[in-house]
Amino acid sequence: MKFSNLALTALLLAAFPLATQASAHEGVARGGVSFAEPLDGAAVPGEFKVVMQAEGMAVQPAGEIVDGTGHHHLIVDGDCIAEGAAVPKDDTHMHFGKGQIETTLKLAPGEHTLTLQFANGKHQSYGKDWCHTIHVTVE
Ligand SMILES: [Cu+2]
């Protein structure tokens, strides 16, 4: 009698440790960049305001590499920049190296993509996890 109770207890202990492990697993909080303005799919005039946001890292002026900080880059009709690669500086890759989070953009009428890429103080990309693309139609 006593032996069979012990056997049952052992069986239960063997069956349930997995459930405990599964509930201990937590989702990793993850930051990123996004546009507060304009919204994805928006129709905008030829000149429009862009508001950039970053969650999980602080925006600060370019200069030194400081963990957990960086600045925004706005890429028109282009792609995210591979992690570690320097963000180019040209007409379609704008750096906000003073730590700006807003700008005014002038674009030709038609469909465009706007891509935000966050990068460190030396303009080295934080990669895909810190990149976000939206579509706009300029009227
Ligand atoms: Cu930069």
Q: Remind me, CATH topology?
A: Immunoglobulin-like
- In total, the number of strands is 9
How many alpha or pi helices?
2
Catalogue the ligands. Answer: copper (II) ion
Q: Helical amount among residues, as a percent range?
A: 10-25%
CATH superfamily membership: Immunoglobulins
State which percent range the strand residues make up.
35-45%
Topology:
Elements: H1 2-15, H2 17-24, E1 32-37, E2 42-44, E3 47-55, E4 58-59, E5 69-76, E6 93-95, E7 102-106, E8 110-119, E9 131-138
The structure holds copper (II) ion.
Could you characterize what this model shows?
This protein is α+β, with helices and mostly antiparallel strands. It has a single domain (about 30-139), classed as Immunoglobulins (Immunoglobulin-like). It contains 2 helices and 9 strands; from the N terminus they run H-H-E-E-E-E-E-E-E-E-E. Strands 2, 4, 5, 6, 8 and 9 form a 6-stranded mixed β-sheet that branches. Strands 1-3-7 form a 3-stranded antiparallel β-sheet, with no helix packed on it. The radius of gyration is 24 Å and the shape is globular. The model is unreliable at about 15-30 (pLDDT under 50). Bound molecules: copper (II) ion. Copper (II) ion (CU) binds near residues 73 and 97.
